[in-house]
Amino acid sequence: MIQKNPNRQRYTANFQEAFYWERVNRSLGWLGQTDEEQRQRQAKLRELTVGIAGCGGIGGMVASRLGRLGIGRIKLADPDSFDISNINRQVGASPANLNRNKAEVVAQFVNDVTPDVDIEIFPEGITPESSEEFVDGCTFILDQMDFYEIKNRYALHRAFRQSPTFEFALKVPTVGHGTYIFKYTKDSMTIEKVYGVHENTALSPAVIRRLMERIMPEIPPFPSRETLDHWFIDLKRMPIFAACPPLAEGVLLERLALEMTGLSELIPGFTPIPVQPGYAMFDTASWTAHIHSGCWWHDNNVL
Questions:
Q1: At a CB cut-off of 8 Å and minimum separation 6, what does 105 contact?
Q2: How far apart are CA 183 and CA 180, in angstroms?
C-alpha cells in the first residue's frame, strides 16, 4: 500500500470552463480535423497526470509549458534550493529566490500563470521513501534529476515500472549545444542495466566516467575530454551552456505532447523514438539529428 503524506503542499485547481478553453484555444487548430476532434484531444490532456522529477533548467520550464498546454495535474519533485549558478538557465532562479526550494518556487510560478492546474509538491525530492507516492497516478514521468543521482533515480524507475498507470518516461539532458532523448518503458532496458552501476557505489572517477558515457553517447569534439573531466570529476559539477536548455525543453515537450494527444498515430511520417538502449539526438552546432536504435556501449562490467 502506498504511503501518502497528508501534509503535502499542493495547489488545488480553480477550474473555470470558459477561461480554460480560451487559454488553450491557439493549440486546437493542430489537434484534429474538426472542432470535435480538437476538443476531444485537448480534453484528454486535461485528464492526465505528469510527474517531473527535477525542477532545474529543463524540468522547471517544462512544468510551466505543461501547465500552458492544459495538462490537468502535475507533480513536482526536487530537494535542491536555488543558488547563484542556477540563474543562467532556470525558471524561478533569481536573487530573491536564492536558498528557496526549487519545486516550491516552480509550483508557485505555474500556479500564478495557470491556476486551473492541480500541482503536488515533493520538496524532499525523489527518495526510496517518496518514489511510489510520486509516481502514483502518473501516466508519464520526466526524469530530470541531478546527473550524480544514482540511488534515488533507481528508486524512481523501480516505482514507475510497478505503476499500473505508467506508460513511459523520458530523460532529456543537454550536452554541449545539443540534446538527447532517452525513453524508458516497462519493457525497455532498465536504468540499472544501462548505467551498470550499483546504487550504493561511491562516485569514483570510474563511476562518473560511466555516467558521462551513458548521457553522452557521442562525446562533443569541443572542449577537450580533459576539460570535461575537470568539470564532471574534479568539480563534480555538470557544465550547462545557458542557451541549450530551451532546446532540450522544446524537444522534450513536443515529443511528449505528440504522444499524449495521440497525434503520433495520425501524423504522416511520424518517427518513433527508440526505447533504451536506443536514443535520439539533435545537435545545433553540427546541425545534425539522428536515431540510434541499438546498444552503443561495449563495457558490460558492473561498477
A1: 55, 82, 92, 97
A2: 10
**pTM (global) more than 0.85:** yes
Helix (H) or strand (E) holding 183: strand 178-184
CATH class given for the domain over 10-192+240-292: alpha beta
Q: How far apart are CA 232 and CA 211, in angstroms?
A: 10
Q: Cell 495557470 belongs to which residue? A: 114
Which stretches in the chain have pLDDT values below 70?
none
- Output the nine-digit C-alpha cell for 278: 536506443
Bridge partners for 101 per DSSP:
81
Q: Are 126 and 152 in contact (CB under 8 A)?
A: yes
pLDDT in tens, 31-75: 999 999 999 999 999 999 999 999 999 999 999 999 999 999 999
- Omega prior to 223 cis, within 30 of 0: yes
Residues 6+ apart with CB under 8 A from 175: 215, 216, 220
Contact 98, 83 (CB under 8 A): yes
